[in-house]
Amino acid sequence: MPTKIIREYPNTFNLPRRIEGLARVAQNLWWVWNPDGQRLFQFVDPLLWDLLNHNPVAFLQKVERTRLNAAVGNPAYLEHYDRVLARMDAYLSSQDTWFHKTYPQQLDKTIAYFSFEFGLHESLPVYAGGLGILSGDHLKESSDLGLPLVGVGFVYDKGYFVQHLTEDGWQETRNALIDYKSLPLISLLDENRRPLTVCVDLPGREVHARVWELMVGRVHLYLLDSNVESNSPSDRLLTERLYSNDLEIRISQEILLGMGGVRARRLLGSEPSVWHMNEGHSAFLAIERILEFVHEGMPFQDAWDRVKISNVFTTHTPVPAGNDQFPLWLIDKYFGNVWPELGLTRDHFIELGRQAQPWGENFVMPVLALKLSERSNAVSELHGIVSRRMWNFLWPDRKEEDVPIRYVTNGVHTRTWLARRMGVLFDTFLGPDWMDHIDEPGFWNEVVNIPDEELWTVRRHLKNKLVHFANERTRQQWQDGQLTPSQAVAGGVFLEPYSLTIGFARRFATYKRANLVFHDFDRFMSLVTDTHRPVQVIFAGKAHPADEPGKLLIQQVYRAVKDSRSAGRLVFLSDYDINVARYLVQGVDVWMNTPRRPNEASGTSGMKAALNGVLNFSVLDGWWREGYNGKNGWPIGKEIEYTNPDEQDAADAATIYETLEKQIMPMYYERDINKLPLEWIRMVKECLRTLVPQFSLRRMLKEYTTDYYLPAIKEEKSDL
Q1: In angstroms, rounded to a whole number, what is the distance separating the alpha carbons of residues 545 and 414?
Q2: What count of Cα atoms within 13 Å lies in the side-chain half-sphere of residue 262?
Q3: To pair with 146 at 20 to 30 A between CA atoms, which of 326, 339, 379, 658?
């Protein structure tokens, strides 16, 4: 019998009756991708809205009653309020979604989507980077399409870290403590009004985790939290922060996510038809599911077959060292009591995840996921090729091209990343229903009809917003005593809206080569400081606290930014998060990406930029290899895999300088009599026409549905 669930919001508000519906808006993340919903709060007190990092729950807890009363007395505000509430209610109750209309017979099925992080909004810092952002976008688009999908992950007490750079550019970190009462988390209680918890066995003890619920439009996201009184002090810290380097903590987290997540689904009374593992962190869910069938009397092999057909695995890592793996002694310690329950020998169990490494054999999580998933995919065409090569040893009797790892190229959630002004432009010239056609390539031919002046006006507006944001952010940090004068210069006080502006923002891993533009420093400075055609470059990004090479890379870039020879035209925006990313991908002119090919599995930041008419200048790796058509941006280097990294760096850097000097800068600064860069605008239109539909999350999720989710559902039915 499923547990009777009582749902309770830990946060309450004292709101005027006329606008008490603000609580409903705040408690569902629907507002995250609906700007009109955000303006409900922003209008009441714009300064407080920004101060609280755009968190509507915290906002309603702290806003002054006089401001709420003033909003009630404003007819225009009330009209907007009524319209937004009606839209939200219609959205949440609608049966007119793509999935409802296309697959009505599958509405009773559930797709469980497991991820170690979910990047939904800057006010909920339980994400570290691209993987989390993609997971968050996956939930949002599932809601838009009406997919019967639920998410499973963790809520981290300290979230991801806040970054501070010293004057010398060294990354320092502090915790971002999460106040649960200031988040739209729903407390799940059992029939006795006790917090709903799951339990997993770890060596010598039981670990409990509380289950919270977060509403993402129509989608339910369930988050596990080990900070409960019944746990030991050390176990209470298991969900304290993302990506611990301590292997015992890491394996405990992954057992809790995979096995505990399955048990949470049981408590909630649903049996998913599809179990989607986003990366290998949750792969222990397959062990838990097999255990359940074995406990019911099913032989191990039959249980294996039964579980495998409904598992989907997505890999994101193109290098073996980047995959989660554990030494065999750790598997012995944490699973020594499990393989007898499965009816297996130790060797048979180890074989489920075994991979030989130069330093010995390890238990590798993607190996486990690949062996126990009927359907597996990479996240771009090139990444599919790399993955089939990397995992070919699991299928020694097959040629590399026949390894059963396909690909679904990533995409981005349009409404989340699209600037409001760009959306208004689309409404005006493509029609108010353009979102219904977001993934239809033919429809986007209409962008040629957008007047050049109108498009350029929006692009100038977005750059002005970026410059103002950087200026004011740096001014505030200086005022608060966080920066020295030289750091204020590095933070963007000299940014202006008239110069060609390039953005580079991502995780500072060494293979992403953030310092590549400084390969020939003098040559690059001559371009940046060109009197008639100046260039601004904005850097942003974090390195994992334990990634010393990554932190050294930040320091190197920061020192270059502070070099007086750059004349303030190089900028580093510290503490990169979703909010900073939003301004950057909307406001720069060019988005640059310089990974060492073929190490970028996909990348999505450039897709977000393209959506806003920002032109890409990137290595032909990941998604850009598929997106570039010769007319919608620029390549860096060629489709060559070098054996000598120094040779690759030199060749790619030379391409950057040459392309900047001979193509990008002239095209940007060449203006007609109306001061419009006509060739640049032509390329922007080509960028929108070709890239917006191809790299939308809607296209991606429809592919997952038709090629992965539905076949798994059909096979599950036939197996019953």
Answers
A1: 31
A2: 24
A3: 379
pLDDT score of 441 more than 60? yes
Query: Does the structure show a pLDDT above 90 at 108?
Result: yes
Cβ atoms 411, 607 nearer than 8 A:
yes
SS3 of residue 441 by DSSP:
helix
Q: How far is the C-alpha of 83 from the C-alpha of 67, rounded, in Å?
A: 20
Nearest one of 576, 555, 548 to 170, comparing CA atoms: 555
Specify whether the CB–CB gap between 292 and 334 falls below 8 A.
no
The verdict on whether omega for the bond into residue 598 sits within 30 degrees of 0, i.e. cis, is yes
Walk me through the domains of the chain, giving residue ranges and CATH numbers.
7-93 (no CATH), 104-158+185-410+702-719 (3.40.50.2000), 422-695 (3.40.50.2000)
Strand partners, 199: 208
DSSP E strands in 13-73: the ranges are none
Amino acid at residue number 478: W
Residue given tokens 């990634």 in the structure block: 547
* Mean predicted lDDT score pLDDT of the chain: 94
d(CA 282, CA 260): 10
Q: Which two tokens stand for residue 466?
A: 């970026």
Give residue 320's pLDDT band: very low, low, confident or very high (50, 70, 90). confident
Tell which residue, 196, 115, 195, 95, has the closest CA to residue 156: 115
Phi and psi at residue 217, to the nearest 5°: 65, -120
Predicted TM-score (pTM) of the model is 0.96
pLDDT of residue 423: 96
The C-alpha angle with vertex 555 and arms to 558 and 467, in degrees rounded to 5, equals: 25
- Closest-CA residue to 212 (of 199, 227, 225): 225
Q: Say how far apart CA 1 and CA 267 lie, in whole Å.
A: 9
Q: Which of 525, 536, 606 is nearest to 563 (CA)?
A: 525
Distance from C-alpha of 122 to C-alpha of 50, rounded to nearest angstrom: 11
Residues 423-430: contacts with CB under 8 Å, at least 24 apart: 423/35, 425/450, 425/454, 425/455, 425/458, 428/454, 429/454
> For helices 35-42 and 75-93, what crossing angle results, to 10°?
140
Higher pLDDT: 220 or 639? It is 220
pLDDT at 480: 86
Q: 320: helix, coil or strand? A: helix
Burial state string for 36-64 with b = 16 or more CB within 10 A and e = fewer than 16: ebbbbbbbbbeebbeebbbbbbbbbbebe
The mean-pLDDT minimum among 158-162, 167-171, 296-300 falls in: 158-162
Q: In angstroms, rounded to a whole number, what is the distance separating the alpha carbons of residues 550 and 545?
A: 9
pLDDT over threshold 60, residue 2: no
Distances (CA, A) of 453 to 170, 398, 428, 445, 458: 44, 56, 14, 18, 9
Closest CA to 404 of 377, 368, 386: 377
Place of tokens 């559902």: 713
Question: What share of the chain in percent tops pLDDT 70?
Answer: 99
In the structure, what pLDDT confidence band is assigned to residue 160 with cuts at 50, 70 and 90?
confident
Q: What is the pLDDT of residue 720?
A: 52
